[in-house]
Write a structure and sequence with these properties.
heterodimer, A: 13-stranded parallel β-sheet, B: alpha/beta, 13-stranded parallel β-sheet, 6 helices, 29% helix, globular
Chain lengths: 107, 187
């Protein structure tokens, strides 16, 4: 329980920043910037620009994702927006609409 | 106050804002929230807010219960209770029917427990009671005394005296000493 959890009934409208893992089961609108991993659970809804190291999406994300390491779209997730990350994984069953930019130079 | 503590100790799937997290904006929800990091803006919950010692909340807070062990800057409006623990620091007004301040807690602001009635008499209740209870037995006594002594008293003064009696008491004072005593107590 060391990491931060935004529970399923919570709605945040604003900015979230920090340097630890963040699990979202509720709704977040605005902007998220972390130095660690972001997990959007299946009940999570994110309408925000995301800037983190890792992102793992099982829920809904609308907004641009910019990850310094990895973005993982799990099955049953719905993502609308551009993704920029050196590693991007899209699982079978995931739905995604947007641009993908795997910054090849960095690797 | 047992419920909030219980839920905080068994924080299984509550919402937790970790120590390095900063949230800027509006937060609302229907579950318990534990703040170990920083939260600025507006906060409204239908359950319990727990601000841990490392937590900082700079927001107007509208919750059911609040347990504050960290720092809160802003007004707290709680439907049920607010508890400032010994590590709690707060600047702002509290509005809640139950407010618990533990030794060691620091607060700068006002506390409003709403309509204080019956046996739960706090600071705010005593003056109100005193003002109401003292004139009631005193008024008839004063009237009787006056009518006996002066024979023809002017009926209107008594009610108006009780509200703004400043100029009147000196005149009546000679007739009835009781009235003067009452005024002193009421003021």
């Amino acid at each position: 329980m060391a990491n931060t959890v935004i529970g399923s009934s919570i709605v945040i409208d604003g900015e979230i920043s920090g340097d630890e893992d963040l699990v979202i089961q509720g709704t977040v609108k605005g902007k998220i910037s972390l130095k660690e991993s972001l997990f959007v659970d299946s009940s999570g809804v994110v309408e925000a620009d995301i800037e983190t190291q890792n992102v793992e999406v099982s829920g809904k994300v609308t907004g641009n994702i910019n990850a310094s390491d990895k973005v993982e779209l799990k099955s049953d997730c719905r993502v609308i927006g551009d993704i920029k990350a050196p590693r991007i994984l899209i699982a079978d069953g995931a739905s995604f609409k947007g641009n993908v930019d795997m910054d090849v130079k960095e690797r | 106050m047992a419920n909030p503590k219980d839920t905080s100790s068994s924080s299984g799937d509550n919402t937790v804002i970790g120590p390095s997290i900063v949230i800027n904006g509006k937060l609302s929800g229907d579950e318990d929230l534990t703040v170990r990091g920083r939260l600025e803006g507006e906060l409204s919950l239908t359950k319990t807010l727990i601000v841990e010692p490392s937590g900082v909340v700079k927001a107007n807070v509208d919750v059911k219960n609040a347990v504050i062990s960290g720092a809160v800057v802003g007004n707290v409006d709680a439907a049920e209770s607010v508890e400032l623990t010994k590590e709690g620091r707060m600047v702002g007004d509290i509005r809640s029917p139950r407010v618990i301040l533990v030794d060691g807690a620091s607060l700068r602001g006002r506390i409003d427990m709403g309509e204080v009635k019956g046996e739960r008499s706090e600071k705010g209740a005593r003056p109100v009671r005193a003002v109401r209870s003292v004139p009631v037995p005193a008024r008839p006594a004063a009237r009787i005394g006056k009518s006996k002594l002066e024979g023809k008293p002017s009926p209107p003064p008594p009610p108006s005296e009780s509200r703004s009696g400043a100029p009147v008491p000196p005149l009546v004072a000679a007739g009835s000493r009781r009235r003067v005593v009452v005024k002193k107590k009421a003021r």
